[in-house]
Amino acid sequence: MNADRPTLSDTALVEAARGGDMRSFERLYRLHSSRIMGICLRMCRRRDVAEDCVQQTFVRAWRNLGAFEGRSAFSTWLHRIAVNEVLTYARNHGTRTETSDEDVEETAESGLGGGGEFDAGEVVDVERAIAGLPEGARHVLVLQAVYGYSHEEVADMLGIAVGTCKAQLHRGRKLLRERMGLEGSG
What we know:
2 domains; sigma factor
């Protein structure tokens, strides 16, 4: 994934924020909050919960900025924090499966990672199909197929075995193809 290499701007902003420069941290927030919101929405499927997880992600990042070692990109570190926040929320509050059309449309608006031409209706259909996947398959599919993390990285983030990660991805892709009416492809 391209995000594995820190960008100069992130590196400089992180260093300034470590020194107490709140404006630099606010800039990091503006640069990364929409992607963190996208990952939280795709994982938990509820706007209100996703907003709480995004807020907690950045609070935790601010508090632990000194622990960021820079071995991976700042965005990767934030994604790991966000995943942990979503999983912690689910453990503490139980998994809720309600997904409103508004939540799905907002997730679609956050984009699937590309910047090219797309049919908004198709994106909503894909997001709705992803939102309907079983939790394990959805989490792995979002992290691996949408955000580009390796099986090893996803397994580490979710606290599962690499083999389980691969099986969940296979299951998620199969279910997604079925729900999108593409059973005979890929």
